[in-house]
Amino acid sequence: MNSYRFVTVNGAKTLHLGDGYGIKVGNDADFVLMDAANYHQALNEDAAVPASYRKGKLIASTEPKQIKVLF
Can you tell which superkingdom this protein's organism belongs to (predicted)? Predict the structure, then answer.
């Protein structure tokens, strides 16, 4: 869990971004949405990134993979 805090909460504190930064209503937030079951999988495996946000607004997204069965 410490490595997760290192790249999230502590990063914002280190940059002196203050209380206006983070995932709360009304705050600026830069984050990526990762398709992972837990933080360990997100940080240590090649988790898919279906969406990216900058200042709380969606800036990039990908469509989920679709499999077609043709028989």
Answer: Bacteria
pLDDT 10s per residue in the chain (71 long)? 566 666 666 777 777 777 766 667 777 778 888 899 998 888 888 888 999 988 888 999 988 777 778 87
Q: What radius of gyration do the chain's Cα atoms show?
A: 15
Take residue 37 and report the two structure tokens written for it. Answer: 């079951």
pTM (two decimals): 0.61
User: Nearest 5°: CA angle at 45, between 44 and 47?
Assistant: 125
